Amino acid sequence: MDVSIVWLNYNSRPILDLAKRSLESVLTLDYDSYEVIMVDNASTDGSDQYLLSLVDKEKNVKFLKLKENLGYAGGMNEGFKHAKGRYVAFITNDVVTEPTSLKQALERFEVGKVACVGGYLLDPLGKIYSAGNWVDALMGVGGICGGLSVSECHTVDEAWPVSYVDGAYMICNTRIIRHSIELPFISETFAYLDDNLLGFKLWNLGYQVLYVPVYFGVHHISQTFKRLGVINRLSIKSRLVRLLVTNTCNEYFKKIYLTKVLASSSIRKLYHEAVETANIVKSKFGTINLKSIPHVHYKDEIFMATIPFYRSLKLNLLNFKKLNTITHDILTIHK
User: Fold this and answer.
1) DSSP characters over 106-155
2) I want to staple 207 with a disulfide (CB 3.0 to 4.6 A). Which of 196, 202, 292, 321 is the partner?
3) pLDDT by residue (tens digit) across 247-267?
4) What is the C-alpha separation between 322 and 318, in angstroms, rounded?
5) What SS3 state is found at 5?
6) How many CA atoms lie within 13 A of 128 on its CB side?
7) What is the Cβ-side half-sphere exposure of residue 49, based on CA atoms within 13 angstroms?
């Protein structure tokens, strides 16, 4: 078996047509040898049984019904445990894949130190959602070329090292994951601390995470978490955890930034949860060193650390969005 595809579902009745298109796109990928592991995160709305009814019984499909909702991290880990392929692709139920994406990506998957790859995903409006992802010294993250058209992203046609690839659809070397960290994600993080922590850890172990110039499909962004109404909370908590587990290039700026954000009472409440999660992350992945990871280095980092909403204000006041959008060539590794 060449590839195992772990496809994750949870209570997708409100987006059933999208989940159906996503599953059907996975089942009809243009590749000779792959298995599909359908993981259901304890759905209670019947969507799992409906989607399972669409599967051709002759297809190489395994169905895993979990007893509780383990989030992205835990759900994908459970699927990974059953993966038999040399490579494993993680795909969520809000991604409609491009038929040739798997084959083209694996043709560019270099042997050796490359652990994971990802291509570019578009949003439903045809703009780039992610062409790989970046992290900065203050643990902000984002999609490379996010919001640009394909023609506006001048690095889209070349392979580049990236901070991490997007967990909505990414492909990893199964052996590297199993031999280096056993499981790709830390189940206790639930979500929003999965693809980024995996990329950071792999870089710290000496492996590479690459963007490859392959169109992966359309991502209908965060459909599950939008319905649950927890995106903002998870996003803030995950950034706090990243700050707590990562040695950055300038620890002084990091301390200033933490002092600034903890002035908010709502963030202070999340901080205690973040400390607990950070301790779990460090017990399993250790401390992360930013210097080993391709990342964005801002010349005005001190202003970003001290002035509230500085980056947003800069982009809005200067109408600077396209000029200041992160492209692959802006990522650097500090030796």
Assistant:
1) HHT--SSSEEEEEEEEE-TTSSEEESSEEEBTT--EEETTTT--GGG-TT
2) 202
3) 988 888 889 888 888 888 888
4) 11
5) strand
6) 28
7) 3
CA 265 → CA 260, 275, 277, 326, distances in Å? 11, 16, 19, 31
In the DSSP assignment, the letter for residue 181 is T
In whole angstroms, give the CA distance from residue 193 to residue 198: 8
Residue 312, C-beta contacts closer than 8 angstroms, at least 6 positions apart: none
pLDDT in tens, 27-81: 999 998 999 999 999 999 999 999 999 997 667 899 999 999 999 999 999 999 9
The one-letter amino acid at 105: A
The DSSP result for 22-41, as a single string, is: HHHHHHT-S-SSEEEEEEE-
User: How far apart are alpha carbons 142 and 145 in whole angstroms?
Assistant: 9
CB 186 within 8 A of CB 284: yes
How far apart are the C-alpha atoms of 139 and 249, rounded to whole Å?
11
Distance between CA atoms of residues 197 and 201, nearest Å: 6
How much is the average pLDDT of 128-149? Answer: 94
3-class secondary-structure state, position 7: strand
User: Are 120 and 97 spatial neighbours (Cβ–Cβ below 8 Å)?
Assistant: no
Specify the DSSP element, H or E, that contains 219: strand 208-219
d(C-alpha 76, C-alpha 58), whole Å: 24
Q: Which residues pair with 120 in a beta bridge?
A: 215
Kindly tell me the burial class for residue 259, based on how many C-beta atoms sit within 10 Å of its own C-beta (0-12, 13-18, 19 or more): exposed
What Cα–Cα distance (Å) separates residue 114 from each residue in 19, 208, 209, 277, 321?
A: 30, 5, 6, 28, 32
